[in-house]
Write a structure and sequence with these properties.
single chain, mainly alpha, 3 helices, 0% strand
């Protein structure tokens, strides 16, 4: 089964606002207060979460397929 979106949202949604603010502050200190840079980094960070979940799911499916074929 595909990872359920509501599980991912529950796992990462409880502190979304705090994490976005923390990320924005860190990026503004590191790269300057340019809004486009801050939003770009936040977008990349939040796109990374579902992509990692899909990568893990795909790897598990691949390993399960190899294991079911046997030696």
């Amino acid at each position: 089964k595909w990872p359920r979106l509501h599980v991912l949202l529950r796992a990462y949604g409880s502190s979304v606002v705090a994490q976005v603010v923390d990320t924005a502050v860190f990026i503004s200190l590191a790269f300057g207060p340019e809004p486009s840079i801050i939003w770009g980094h936040i977008l990349v960070k939040w796109l990374q979460i579902p992509l990692e979940a899909l990568l893990i799911y795909g790897a598990r499916r691949y390993v399960a397929t190899l294991a079911s074929k046997g030696p």
